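Folding Query — how this chain folds
Tokens — whole-number codes for backbone shape
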Amino acid sequence: MDRRGIVVAVNISPKKGSRKKNVGRSCLLPGLGLQDDAHAGFAHRQVSLLAMESIQKMVALGLKVGPGDFAENITTEGLDLLQLPVGTRLRIGKSSLLEVSQIGKECHTRCAIFYQAGDCVMPKEGIFAEVLEGGEIRVGDEIHVDGGDSDHQR
């Protein structure tokens, strides 16, 4: 498994349930999430990540979608997110540390992407994380897998 990748996009939105815009850089806030994002502070799902490789699956189905369109905070490339178990720690850039807290999610309502393509990758291929150590992240930052820590207390 690849143990590192890169940040392709840093995405925020002012309200929940909407596509996010790539702002190029932002600040991860410990225990909260991405600064100025509507999902910041949402329990254990503080930050969402989705691989560019997953987005490309939807492009192959004929959709015109890109980073942020699935409401993910961080779009990655080169890192197999689905192979990261809960508890895995991800170091992003110089100072930020995330811990994977959930793989996928249940969608209670179908999004516009689902209706356009008959499927959506975020519920199955997106992951969520808590922010353990904050700091600025930006497009082009490397993401390193630090591994899991079963002794970490929530």
